[in-house]
Design goal:
The complex is a heterodimer of chains A (400) and B (332). Chain A is α/β, with parallel strands linked by helices and 400 residues long. Chain A has two domains: 233 residues, Response regulator (Rossmann fold, 3-Layer(aba) Sandwich), CATH 3.40.50.2300; 149 residues, Response regulator (Rossmann fold, 3-Layer(aba) Sandwich), CATH 3.40.50. Chain A is 44% helix and 17% strand. In chain A, the strands form three sheets. Chain A has a seven-stranded mixed sheet with strand order 7-6-8-9-10-13-14, with helices on both faces. Chain A starts with a helix and ends with a strand. In chain B, a hairpin with a 2-residue loop joins β3 and β4. Chain B is globular, with a radius of gyration of 21 Å. The N and C termini of chain B lie far apart (52 Å). The relative contact order of chain B is 0.17. Classes of the chains: A alpha/beta (400), B mainly alpha (332).
Amino acid sequence: MKKLLTAVAASALMTAPALADDIKIGSVAGITGPIAELVAPIMDGRALAAEHINGAGGLLDGSQMVMVPADSQCDPKAGVDAGNKVVNVDQVVAIIGASCSGATNGMVQSVTIPAGIPSISDSATAPSISDLDDKGLVFRTAPSDAYQGAALAQYAYDQGFRSLAMTYANDDYNAGIATVFAQVFEQIGGMITANQVHEPNKASYRAEVATMAGGGEADGLALFAYYGGSGITIIKNSLETGSFGKFVGADGMFDQSVIDQIGADTLRGNIWLTQSASDPDSASYKSFAEAYAATGNDPQAPYAAHGYDATFMMAMAIEKAGSSDSAAIAKALMEINDPSGVEIGVGQWAEAKAAIAEGKAVNYTGATGSVDFDANGDVPGFYGVNTVSADGTWETTLLK
Amino acid sequence: MDALYGYGIYILTLASMGGIYAILVLGLNIQWGFTGLFNAGVAGFIAVGAYTQALLTTPVSARHIGGIELPIPLAMVLAMIISAIVAYFIARICVRLRSDYLAIATIGIAEILRLIFKNELWATNGPRGVSQIPKAFESLPQPWNIVAFLIMVLAIVAVIYVLMERARLSPWGRVMTAIRENEQASAAAGKDVERFRVESFVIGAALMGLGGALLAQYLKQIDPQVSDPLTATFLVWVMLIAGGSANNKGAILGAFLLWTVWSATQILSGFLPNEIVVFGFEIGNLQVRSAYVRIFLIGLILQFILQQRPEGLLPEQRPAPVGMGKPQGERA
C-alpha cells in the first residue's frame, strides 16, 4: 500500500512540470446519468475543436489545449464536485460545461463565479441562468429555452394553428420550453385548450390524451417530450383514439424512430418539430459537418455543434487575451465577435491566430450560427423546422 | 494559482461535503443504528430540509414562492422543525410497521415528497428547481468563505456528535438499543415502545433536514434531483453500514471516507491514458469511461466491507451495563 501511494504521489509530481506548457480547460459534462447518450457526441464535438486548435499551432506560443474531463452526472451535487475538482486540482483556466441546467447552475454559483473562472455551457438552456449575478463569467452557446419556445409558438401561429392542446414531460428541459411556448402562443392570439403535464416512461397515455381532448376543440397537439420517453406513445395514443391528428413539438422529439414507428404517410404534413439548428448552407456549418462526420458521428446530434463552438470560442478568447489569465479570458470572450472584424469560421484556427497576432479584430461565425454573446452571455440561436419528406426522413428548413 | 493552494481548497470543499453527509449519516444512525428503524426514505427528509432552506431565504422570484429572505440560521432551525413535523406524522402512521414494511412505506413517502417538489410548479419551480440560494459566509473573499463554511459544518457535526454520544450512554439510548434487540422484552419491561420509536424517527429526520438545509446552501441550487435515491438514500446507507452502524464515530468516518472515494476517484481518472490496448482490442476514451467506474467502486466497497467486516469499520460498542460487572456480548 505504501509503495502504491508513493508511486501515485511520484507520478503526480512528475506529470505536473511536464505539462507546464499546456493550457488546461475543464470539460465538464453529464457523462453518466440521465442524458449520458446525448453527452457522448457533445464531448466529441469539444474534442474535435481542441484537435483543430492543437493541429494548427495550438494556443499562444504553441501551448497545447488540454481538455480535462469531469462528470457532472446531470446533478447539482456532482456538478459542484466536478467543478471543484477541475478548478482546484487541475487548475484549469476556464471551463466548458456543465451539461444540464441544474448542474451548470450549481457549478457556476458555488465554484466558478467565486473562483473567477469563466465558463461556457454548450447545452444548459434554463432561462434562470441568464438572471445570475455572474460578474461576466458565465456564457453559453446553447440558446435559452425562452427563445425556442417563442420561435415555435410564432411558427405554429403562422402555420394557421389558433387553438392547441399542450402536454409536456415533467423534466426541466421540456417543462421549460412548454412554459414559454404557452405564454407566447397566448400572447400572439392563440389559445391553449388544455395544459397537461405527464410523467415519462409510462406504457400508455390514453388517460392524458382523453383529458386533453376533453379540453375543447383544438387544431392540434403541442407535444414537448423526449421521443423515447413518452413522445412516440402519445402520438400513437392520439391517433388511435382520433383525438389529435396534427402535432407540433421541439427537438426532444427529433429522431428517425418517430417516423419509423408511426409511419411516414401518417405523419407527412401533420408534424412540425423545431430544432436548435444551424444554417445548412453556411460555409462554417458545412466544414463542421464534414469534419465531424469523419469522426463517425452524426453532425445533427443535439448540441454537438454547440460543444464545438464553445470550445473554439474559449480558445479564441485565450488567444485574444494573450495569456491564460482567467479574468482576461472572460473579458476577451466579449471581444471575439466584432462585426467589423476578420471573419473566422469552423476549423480556421491558423487564420484566427494570424489575425489576432496582427492585432486585428475578429468575428467568429460558428457551426451553430453567428454566436454573438449578449450582455447576459447568451446567444439568440437559430431554429430549423423539421417535416417528413417524400422518402420518409426528416427534412429541415431553416427558420429565418 | 499555486498547485498546493488548489489542492488545499479542494480538500476544504471535500471536507465540507463530507461534513454535510456526516450529519445525514448521524441522523440515520439514530434511526437504524440505535433503534433499528429501517428508513429507506432518507432522500425525502433531505429534500424537505433543502427546499425549506431554499424557499425561506431566497430573494423574490417569479419562478417560485418565497421571497421572505429569512436569516440563514433561522431558516436552518425551521428546516429542522419542518422536517421533524413531517416525520412526526409519518411516524404516527408507519412506525409500528416491522422493519421491512417500514422500509417499503418510507420509500413510498420519499417518492411522494419528490413528486410533490417536482410537480407543484407554482411553489417550487418544478424540475427547474430553486437557484441563487444564499450561502453562509459567501460574502467573505475567497478562500475565507470556504474556510468559514467548513468550520460551521464541522462545528455542527461536533455538537451533534457530543449530543448523540450522551444520548447513547443515557437511559434513553439504552431503551433504544433494547427496542432494537427485542421489542417484546422492552414492552414487558414497561417501556412505551411506540413513543420511543417515534422520538427516534423524528430526531433522526430533523438531522436529515438540517443536512438538507446545509446542502442547499452549499450547492446554491437545488432541484428534485436533491432527493435522487442514488446520491441521497443509497449513499447515506452505504456510509453508515461501512463506517459502523450504531457507532457515532463510525458514522462520521463512513461519511468522510465514502465521500472521499466518491469524489477523489475522479482525480485518479486524470492519470489514465486516453487509450489502451488490451489483448489486441483498442479501448478508447478511457478518461470519459472511467466516470462509470466510480459508481461501480462504491458498490464494490460495500460488498467488500459487508463480506470482511459485517459490523463496519468501527463496530458498535455497548456502554457498560449499570450495576453489572461485565459487558454483554456483541450484537449479532
